[in-house]
Amino acid sequence: MAKYIKLNLTAPGAATGSELLINIDQITRLVTASTTTTDIFFDNVVTATKKWTITHTAPLVANAVLDAIQSAMTANPGGVRSTVVGPINTAQVPAAQGAGAADGRGPNGQLLITQPQVNVTFTSAAFTA
Predict the structure, then answer these.
(1) Which of 70-74, 76-80, 94-98 has the highest mean pLDDT?
(2) How high is the pLDDT of residue 78?
(3) How confident is the model at residue 39 (pLDDT cuts 50, 70, 90)?
(4) Is 20 within the bounds of a domain?
(5) Average pLDDT over residues 10-23
(6) Which end of the chain has fewer CB atoms < 10 Å from its terminal CB, N or C?
């Protein structure tokens, strides 16, 4: 049975729709092409350029998108599909000490967050045959 990884796309195209499904058995290697693109190469005896180029927002940590794709490839061994979750783009920011309670916590002991965490979003994908 084939196993797939899924990337949710915020700017879907005619070739992908809003979800890109890739059969992991065909993936040969992954490359961080730039801070906002990751290439997924396939086993192809005819040409070395058979690939998907995934466009995404820049992660906080270099190669984090590549790592997220590799994690999705090895996750869920009994399932058919695993979704690639975008790594952190912007880290959350807790309230400074002294905001609310003396230690920066709210009235119920919760840590107050002034800026929520933002994850990388996958914008689009382009296939090169």
Answers:
(1) 70-74
(2) 60
(3) very high
(4) yes
(5) 85
(6) N
The first and second tokens of residue 69, run together, are: 């794709």
User: So what's the pLDDT on residue 61?
Assistant: 93
Whether 111 is in a domain gets the answer: no
Q: If you compute the radius of gyration of the chain from its CA atoms, what whole number of angstroms results?
A: 19
**Nearest Cα to Cα of residue 69 among 42, 87, 50:** 87
CA distances from 10 to 17, 25, 51, 54, 105 (A): 10, 25, 20, 12, 35
pLDDT score of 46: 58
- Its domain, for residue 25, covers 4-90+118-128
SS3 10: strand
Q: In the chain, how many domains are there?
A: 1
In-domain check, residue 97: no
Let me know: does 99 contact 23? Beta carbons within 8 Å.
no
Average pLDDT taken over every residue of the chain:
83
The helix (run of H) or strand (run of E) holding residue 69 is helix 64-74
Kind of pairing between the strands at 81-83 and 118-119:
unpaired
SS3 66: helix
